[in-house]
Amino acid sequence: MDFSHSPKVAALRERLLAFVDEHIAPNDHLHHEQQAAMTDRWQPVPITEALKPKAREAGLWNLFLPESGHGAGLTNLEYAPLAEIMGRYPWSSEVFNCSAPDTGNMETLERYATEEHKERWLKPLLAGEIRSCFAMTEPDVASSDATNIQTRIVRDGDHYVINGRKWWSSGAGDPRCAIFIVMGKTDPEAEKHKQQSMILVPRDTPGVTIKRMLPVFGFDDAPHGHAEILFENVRVPAGNILLGEGRGFEIAQGRLGPGRIHHCMRAIGLAERALEMMCRRSLERRPFGKPLADQGVIIDRIAQSRILIDQCRLLTLHAAWRMDTVGNKVARTEIAEIKVAAPDMACQVIDWAIQAHGAAGVTEDFGLAYMYKIARTLRIVDGPDEVHKFQLGRMELNKYRAPRNARPGESV
Amino acid sequence: MDFSHSPKVAALRERLLAFVDEHIAPNDHLHHEQQAAMTDRWQPVPITEALKPKAREAGLWNLFLPESGHGAGLTNLEYAPLAEIMGRYPWSSEVFNCSAPDTGNMETLERYATEEHKERWLKPLLAGEIRSCFAMTEPDVASSDATNIQTRIVRDGDHYVINGRKWWSSGAGDPRCAIFIVMGKTDPEAEKHKQQSMILVPRDTPGVTIKRMLPVFGFDDAPHGHAEILFENVRVPAGNILLGEGRGFEIAQGRLGPGRIHHCMRAIGLAERALEMMCRRSLERRPFGKPLADQGVIIDRIAQSRILIDQCRLLTLHAAWRMDTVGNKVARTEIAEIKVAAPDMACQVIDWAIQAHGAAGVTEDFGLAYMYKIARTLRIVDGPDEVHKFQLGRMELNKYRAPRNARPGESV
Amino acid sequence: MDFSHSPKVAALRERLLAFVDEHIAPNDHLHHEQQAAMTDRWQPVPITEALKPKAREAGLWNLFLPESGHGAGLTNLEYAPLAEIMGRYPWSSEVFNCSAPDTGNMETLERYATEEHKERWLKPLLAGEIRSCFAMTEPDVASSDATNIQTRIVRDGDHYVINGRKWWSSGAGDPRCAIFIVMGKTDPEAEKHKQQSMILVPRDTPGVTIKRMLPVFGFDDAPHGHAEILFENVRVPAGNILLGEGRGFEIAQGRLGPGRIHHCMRAIGLAERALEMMCRRSLERRPFGKPLADQGVIIDRIAQSRILIDQCRLLTLHAAWRMDTVGNKVARTEIAEIKVAAPDMACQVIDWAIQAHGAAGVTEDFGLAYMYKIARTLRIVDGPDEVHKFQLGRMELNKYRAPRNARPGESV
Amino acid sequence: MDFSHSPKVAALRERLLAFVDEHIAPNDHLHHEQQAAMTDRWQPVPITEALKPKAREAGLWNLFLPESGHGAGLTNLEYAPLAEIMGRYPWSSEVFNCSAPDTGNMETLERYATEEHKERWLKPLLAGEIRSCFAMTEPDVASSDATNIQTRIVRDGDHYVINGRKWWSSGAGDPRCAIFIVMGKTDPEAEKHKQQSMILVPRDTPGVTIKRMLPVFGFDDAPHGHAEILFENVRVPAGNILLGEGRGFEIAQGRLGPGRIHHCMRAIGLAERALEMMCRRSLERRPFGKPLADQGVIIDRIAQSRILIDQCRLLTLHAAWRMDTVGNKVARTEIAEIKVAAPDMACQVIDWAIQAHGAAGVTEDFGLAYMYKIARTLRIVDGPDEVHKFQLGRMELNKYRAPRNARPGESV
Hints:
Four copies of one chain form a homotetramer. The first copy, chain A, is an alpha+beta fold. Chain A has helices at 7-24, 28-37, 46-57, 76-87, 92-95, 102-112, 115-126, 248-284, 296-326, 332-357, 359-362, 368-378, 385-398; strands at 131-135, 152-156, 159-170, 177-185, 196-202, 208-213, 226-237. Chain A folds into three domains: 7-113, Acyl-CoA dehydrogenase/oxidase, N-terminal domain (Butyryl-Coa Dehydrogenase, subunit A, domain 1, Orthogonal Bundle); 131-241, Butyryl-CoA Dehydrogenase, subunit A, domain 2, CATH 2.40.110.10; 249-398, Up-down Bundle (Butyryl-CoA Dehydrogenase, subunit A, domain 3). In chain A, 60% of the residues are buried.
């Protein structure tokens, strides 16, 4: 369990930090302004696009993909500190072609798609030429339980016909979004976790209608966005099914682990930036004749933030190490732990940073309200806290149900 | 300390509840849609306007104004349960001409303006024909300490000339907003709390520029809005000063008490509605085969919400009763208590309600993210929690500094 | 809902406060010393005994008993502020013959015992000549659910024969404890809430064995104490049953409401004293060159304590008022609210006071650790928080199960 | 930063776990009974003494001492998982001669004492033949700020004369306690951190009076105990001073780091055992017809406990690794972090475990109240949380005071 950076990772970190210092941090305000000013909300933000070739040139491209020649060949543990850095500026992940849901979709295609589909969808995704979307959550059912999903995928000759309604289909707002991975049921009578399948649906397939883009805490997250999508008699070739009928749940499981750990690492970076902002603001602002930085309550929160962040980072690195060494399935306990811990921590730290900024904290001048929106939403995305804690609690209890009783939790 | 409803209040409550049932609740979604659909963001929302005459006709108009023939003649304690009901649907306060900052501005004009100014500004405000704005907070200083304010109000012959920059000037977005009450310094050399004055500035006075409307958690709060305003050599007649030079702090103190208690009562109503939504959703939603309402964590939060709300309501009624009986100045302890307690409570209850709604909780389909924005912002508006707690803590400590030592806190 | 003090209560409060100032506060340390020094732990503490005649003489005796000529004839709402004052010094309740479980036992006897039993047990209890015990909780089952109780009470001719094991039988340590009220099952086959009965068992009845006195957080609570008691073929006359077979649950319900509200009022008094101690200590103690009272974190906690206490007191007065006006059964929601809120609040305030006292906070020099023990134990006594919150949450949810849907919670 | 167990540590852990399984866990109840039954409170507990030779024989003796031939030669990181295991049963540390304050005292002697003193005091301490005490805290001043210390150590010819009052001198109750390390001021006029010295005082030196043993949450912690000690004209040879006059603060700093990390590791073990007990109890106990383990609130707390413990363990291992690699002084940030985090975490987990045990949780049948006492006291011992957080917050703020501004916190 060695969390030190290998020389390879250390070099990538240095390069990434330098890139952030040179290109991301100084353009953060510009990015915000460009995005805010766009009247056609769903067009790419110029500064993001302008930086992509630079990132690629700097060798900071597709860093996320483990066990593949297409990415940087990093393990989860190696990728973690890089994702943390990207997380400080939420828009920056895309600059490095490391943004959700494209990362998860690329990984899914890399693992489960045919060569033909890889050529058609994975290649341009890796090149950053198209974007993609993952359509799983449904408005009408509690989708944290995937067995509730109602979208139907019905075989009809050489095709599958898809009917259903999805929402929170992130990334669908982008005009370059060309491919959807859709989860639905092929056999509602099958065993509980064999009913679901995943299928590739090109965006321009007839019957696909984007009903609306969802606001989140008042933000539209343009040009990425979160869509509500109607699938009406959408017909795609049978070969578009991934891995085969009834394998959807299995693919989802494989996909969710990395997705969650990426979210958590980015949330840690986000919290670090909020803490930095809290410190800087506290040193500058002087209500009642002395800087906030001299007030006990503020100092206490800064200290507590440092503790919360450091604890959470180590827990996340630990989960990454477990994923790398025992596999995503066995490491589901550790993944559940960070999925609960990181967003909660980030919400707390950002909330304190907001408070230290007063009225400026809830408007967009510092971006803290937007950062809070990200962290708060993470407590729901990929399953709400309650579901993960329920599973985690049950796994802990199970240790003591066994005939041969366990010892209390042991040191790592 | 009798918190029961007098027959007069009981009758008003019944009428108000009936109006909400008939006109507000069923139009909540329509209001949201109309507002969301407006391309010119700063026009009145039709349903709000359509309901105003009905409210007036129902005798539900200007209920807030204490000790005045213009309002309903209610004490703070009497108005509290009515404000709570309005708070359930944040947009409804305006329907009853009871929305901030107009209420505070009307009260200020009623108490301190000349007859001429009352005729010109108070009368149309009471009639709901114009809107108003209170310009106090400044972006460049920690305005929670009013002595930091930098806007200058300089006498020049028969006029005052105003220079400064304000923000969070709520209500300035509304095209009907006709009058600003501006706080600034007339004498920066005077005693600390005699430097400030308040002055009336008609919106169309040359030199008044609305620089931008501030987003709050991504929301623009249109058509009301929160403005950043530049005052450049703005010249108004000397008679526009309220009460006289150096009286600004005094007016602010008188104004803030009622403003805070109104906010708190509305926050309680907001929390009640969030709790209702949490209950209804929990009864309907069935992840993992049984309703959320059967899950212990949810039940526990619902119980805790009931406790938190009930405690907070009683504390607020108590503060109202104190304001009515000992005056706003002596009751500043009690006002500080609720200013901290109510927004914090509302944030917690709404956050739990969001969680119970899953992905739907952070989008606008249920309005919960918007409700959270209101409650969260209240922790900063009119002074952040930390300032109120600092004062409250000092007042508590002072009890034991006196030569003759106090007893521990006594029952009310 | 008038929480003001009637002239009668105001006069009692003045008298009680004067008595506390003169006799209780100055003897607090002496009481602690005398109790600590007793080698025979189970003898009355001299100062307690010395003050009883003074309290009786001052008309401060048996203040608790509502609707009875034996007490002061106070409603719950009237008794509440008096109980709060007694709660500041936990040992003082007994000085006024107002300590648990005697209060509950006296009320039970007053309501449900025969004249003969009143003469034999109630009279000397009212006179403070004997003490009593309530034996309900059992070590082997989760007694928060009274239907779990296993003690058997079996009719045998003119007698009942009792077998079972009880613990947490508070007050049994006192050598003057003469009478137990025992809860057990007379008919395990009856309807769920008709199985239980209560019966009077004189302490010296053969077969009653005190197995041990339980320590609580290391304290023995001598001379009162909490006993584990074995009942082996304990035979008492059939007339000792209270109200009749199968009425035990009903008696318990009637008894628990007042017991809980007394606990809560005392917990509020305890928290007030902890807050006073925190303030005084903070003014005196100067680590790092300035008094704790100038440190932001301490001031913040003092403010928060004031808010928490005031909220909780109002909630408790509200519950008392409900008990007085709608009866204990209907007011069970309000009783559940305070049963959760008051101990939790007291734990928090006392914990902060401990922290402000440093090492002195956890030893007995200031009594804070003992105060914490009281408050912490109250989160379990008479049903753990979780049970009350479960019931409270269900009651809230039930409002929305009805065919005619409720409005959100309304102002009191 | 490799937290894996080296083969040496892995072997020690296996041996230690086996010893705990065979000798400690099965005797936990016996230990409690023996201790509770001792009328002479200050005699060694037989089972503890009986196990010491076995531990020594098993090679589980003096495991704590880093960089020394006397101990097991373990780094802090290597010792951490062993301390965690000992922490599960608080009395077990002494069985392995690894209990505070003897560990810290042995380390201090090893580093700073003369050969003569090592022979006289360190040797029998290492052999477990005598016990020792560290006298630093004073009742009259806030000792978390060591500059407040008032005890005087005055040179008088070949001797030093000590006058002062100490308390919380842990271990002084043990009749085998033979040597005190006393902190006092040799030069109150010197530079702030050069005023203090440490000096060896044999317990039987004239003028040393143990005034009383302090109860902690009602517990006496016999036979170890926490003493209040009066030093009146206590005269010891000048050579008894450690390292030289004015070096006391420096020694304290060196000593406190390891002391704190040992406390934290043991607190983690304690929390693990509390979690185990919470799980086992929840599986057994069935209020209201189903096991606690099926109730959502309990499951949620178990999950949260798992997260809290795992986070905190990793943070502690990280601090140990920093101490080993950059030294205790540079690692003071990390030590401050765990000093705050671990006791707070343990308090929370144990509190939940208490609640799951109901009435049994606050008595001594399960030892949970005693475990809580340990964890709660740790929030004060070696400096209260507030002091550590103040320093931690300042260090974080300092990053941004520098002319060359820092980046936000970086991944480890």
